[in-house]
Amino acid sequence: MAAKQSENLSRRDFLRLVGGATSASLLYLLLRPKWEFSSVRPPGALLEGDFEATCIRCGKCVLACEQNAIVLDEEGLPYIDGLSGWCDFSLDCIAVCPSGALQPVDPKTATIGTAVIDEERCIAWNWPGCRLCYEKCIDIEQAIWLDEDYRPHVDETLCTGCAACVGVCPQSSRAGHRNKIYGKAVFVG
Fold it and tell me: What band does 82 get if pLDDT is binned at 50, 70 and 90?
C-alpha cells in the first residue's frame, strides 16, 4: 500500500510539473518582448555570418567614428549604439577597416536600418509635448514627420537608420538591433 501512495504522489508531482511548465510557457508567449535583439553593424558591413568571420576585432572603426556611434560588443565586434552617438555616414570606419568586414558603399544611398516608434513607450504618443526625435531628424534626413496630433511617424523610404533619434529620445533604452518582425535592422525610440 505504501508503494501505491508514493506512485500516486509521483504522478501528482509530475502532473504539477507539466502544468506549471505549460503555464509558464503560455505566460512567456503572452508577455514576451516584441523586440529581439542583435547588433546593427556599421555601414558597409558584410552579411552577419561573414562579418563575424571576417572582422579581426581591431577597433579601428571605433576610433575613426567621430560621432561615437560605433562601440564594441562583448566579443569585440563593432555595432552602432544609438545611445552613444549617431552615424553620419562619413564612412571613415570603412576606410580604416583592414579586414574587409566593412565594404565601400555609396554614402548617398547607404542605410543600416530603419527607426521604429514604439507607440506604447513614446511620450508623444501618450502625452502631448515631446518632439525631440522629429527635431533631431529634421536637421539630418527628414525621415520623421508629425501627424495632426503631433505624434511622430517614420518614413521608411527616407530613414537611413542613423540613430540620431535614439540618442535624443528620453524613453530610449535600447541601441539598434535586428527585429524579426520587420526582418531588418531597426532603432526603437
Answer: confident
